[in-house]
Amino acid sequence: MEEDVIKESMLFMYFNGDCGAALDLYQRVFDAEVVERETYGEAKMTEIESAKQLIMNSTFRLGGLTFWPNVVRGTKYVA
Q1: What's the pLDDT tens digit per position in 10-32?
Q2: Dihedrals phi, psi of 76, to nearest 5 degrees
Q3: 3-state DSSP call for residue 23?
Q4: Which of the two ends of the chain, N or C, has the fewest CB atoms closer than 10 A to its terminal CB?
């Protein structure tokens, strides 16, 4: 009989504007593999100039885990 085993986990992380700095830190300190990094400006999802550089979608891998850190919509940075 085959046992049910979790083969992959994805951890979601939500930031209030500092996601890009966190990605840089994880990559530099832990040698994380950044798989995706897209800003609100690149996705054309905001007209707020100060929010265009914030991370909308990102993914990184570290130690066999996949993380999805993002800036939450509805914060003071992203309408």
Answers
A1: 889 988 878 999 999 999 999 99
A2: -65, -15
A3: helix
A4: N
